[in-house]
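C-alpha cells for Putative iron ABC transporter solute-binding protein. Go.
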Amino acid sequence: MKLTGRARRLGLPVVLAVALLTGACGGGTSVSGGSDASPASASERAAAAEKQLAKNTLVPLEGEPPTPELPVTVDSSDGRKVTVEDASRILPLNGGVAEIVFTLGLGDRVVGRDITATFAEAEDLPQVTKAHDVSAESVLSLKPTVVLADTDTGPGEAIEQIRDAGVPVVVLDPATELADVTTRTTRIAEALGVPDAGQALNVRMSDELAAARAAVPEGSRPKVAFLYMRGSAAVYLIGGKGSGADSLVEAAGAVDAGKEAGFDKPFTPITSEALVRAQPDVILMMTKGLESVGGIDGLVRIPGIAQTPAGMNRRVVDLEDGVLLGYGPRTPLVIDLLVDRLHKT
C-alpha cells in the first residue's frame, strides 16, 4: 500500500482552527445550526449526531444561498495565482471540499463529483474519478467554470490537462488535522466569491465543536488507537502522529495511543510489539475496515489485539469511512459521537 497522500492512500475524502479547540463551552443538543445556551450531555448530543449522520445529508447555512462576487484572484497551493471569473459550474475533486461547497449553499452549482463525495446530495452527480484517479476527459465533458482540488489530487497530468483547457484550478492543502477546517473553509469560500458565507460557516462549526467538547466527562482520558485495516489487501496499520485521527481523538478528550507510544509517522505496520507498546483502552476504526477483518470477532484474532485492554474488553468504536476523516462541516458530529463512545466504560 503506497502511503503518499492521506486522501489517496486511505481512499477517503480527506479543517477548525486552534481557537475552535479552546473556544467557549456553551452548547445545546443542536447539531445543525450552532448551539443554544443550555448544556447537553454527551449521550444526548451523540444521539442527535447519529440521527443526522444516518440521513447522510448536509445542513446548509440558513438563509438564501449566497451570490458569488467575482472575479477574484486567490493563491493556489501549487504556488500559482488563480483568477476565478465564474462559479456557475463548480467541480470539487475531493469529498470534504464538496461538503463545504454544498454547506455554503452552492450545491446547485456543482456539476460533478469524485469517488469520495458519498453524501446524499452528491450521489446523482456524474463521477469523474476512476478508483481515485481523476479523468481529465470526464471533468472537461462537464464544462466546469472552476475546479477545486487538493495537493493529493491526481494524477498530475490530468490536473495540467484541465488547466491547459482554460479551466481555473484552485489547489488546496489537504486537511490532516482539526485545526485545518477553518482555513480550508475560508479558502474555498474566497475562491468562490462568498467570503461572508465562509465566515458564517466557521462560526457555526466553532459553536458546534465547543458544545461537543463541553460534554467530555471530567477525569476521563482513555488511550485510543486508530487502526486502518483492509483485510482483503492484508493492510494492517496503526495510526500515529499525523494520521488525521490523532487530532480527532485529542479533540474528543482522549489520548492517541499510537502518538503517545512514539509512533512519529502517520501509519506504522501493526505488530504484536507495536500493540503492546500502545496498550489502547479503545480501538477506533472505519466501518468498512472493521468489516474487512470479520468484525470484532475477526479483529481480536489478529495477533496482539487480544492482549490489549481494548481487545480484552472488546472496546471498538467504528464510524463510516466517508465521515470519520472527512474534515468538513460534519466533523463536529464526529466529535459528538467520539466524546460519547470513547469515554464509555
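The chain is about 40% helix and 15% strand.
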